[in-house]
Design a protein that fits this description.
Length: 85
C-alpha cells in the first residue's frame, strides 16, 4: 500500500473517529485505529501511525472518562454531577 493510499485510509478512519466523538461507536473506531497504527508502522509510515495512535488514545481517554462517570452514577459525593450541593 502506498503512502497516498495510507493517507486516504487514515482520513476515512479519522472521519469515523469524528463521528464517534459524538456517538457510541468509539470502541470500533479505536480498534480500526489500532490496526491502522500496526500496519502503518510495519510499512514504515511512522508519522501516519503516530497520528492514528494519538487519535486512538484521545478516544480511549473519553471512553475511560465516560466509564468512570457511569460507575460513579454521574454524581459527585458532594452533590450533583457538577459538584453543586
Amino acid at each position: 500500500m502506498t503512502k497516498t493510499e495510507m493517507d486516504i485510509r487514515l482520513t476515512k478512519i479519522f472521519s469515523s473517529a469524528a463521528i464517534a466523538l459524538v456517538a457510541a461507536d468509539k470502541r470500533a473506531v479505536c480498534k480500526q485505529l489500532k490496526q491502522f497504527d500496526k500496519e502503518a508502522r510495519a510499512r514504515g509510515f511512522h508519522a501516519l501511525a503516530g497520528e492514528a495512535c494519538q487519535m486512538r488514545w484521545q478516544l480511549v481517554a473519553e471512553l475511560q472518562q465516560a466509564k468512570s462517570v457511569r460507575d460513579c452514577g454521574g454524581v459527585h459525593e458532594t452533590g450533583d454531577r457538577h459538584g453543586h450541593l
